[in-house]
Amino acid sequence: METRQSFFPTAAMDADMEEANGPFWDDLIARIEEDAPGAALDGLLDVGCHRGGFLERVAARWALRTVYGIEPVAELRAAAAARLSGVAQAVILDVDGWERIPDDAVPLVTAQEVLYLVGDLDGMMRRIARVLRPGGAAYLTLGSHTENPLWPHWRPILVSMGLVVFDHSPLDILRAGEAAGLNPAVRPLRTDGWVTYRPSAARFPVPSVAALIDHHFRHKLLFCFEKP
């Protein structure tokens, strides 16, 4: 993926992704703040940080001093670095840059719709466990998993975009986190709210409104892995 100029087939589709992800970002932020009300969050690693939109939002909201991003696409890394230039320490790395992040570096790790692109779940969880501080947590969202009935329909679309994707079950993900020494938990990411959907412009179509609702409020999962 390092030779790609964008994640999706066009840069315009990449730009649209932030608007589409807004409701998921809002719910993720709300869940983190519910779990740790008043916590002094001073650092964050976002895996698959794309153009830095989520990092920019939470860096301002939580007054973060240090942010790390992992992003395989060079053009997206450059965009993220430019957006985060006002953060005291913003380090945007490619997928080989994990070792540049110190042990116990951050209290919080996030990754949104990334795990289906990861073949080695165990290795991913070990890297997350290494950079998390004791008492910290990783919040990983995923709807592209084998328990989602839409995954068999969406998987070929992603492959047609030139992406290499992997079939993971939610239990596979929980097991990998546990094996890395983390305490795993899972819940739906969203529990209420409007679902914006324009059928004529849908990148990933759905067969019915029922399937759309189920995706948003049942199958789009939030995993939490706490480091003892």
TrEMBL record:
InterPro entries: Methyltransf_11, SAM-dependent_MTases_sf
Limits of the Methyltransferase type domain: 45-139
Keyword Nucleotide-binding in record: no
Signal peptide: none
GO molecular function: S-adenosylmethionine-dependent methyltransferase activity
Keywords per UniProt: Plasmid
Keyword Glycosyltransferase listed: no
Name the UniProt record assigns to this protein: Methyltransferase type 11 domain-containing protein
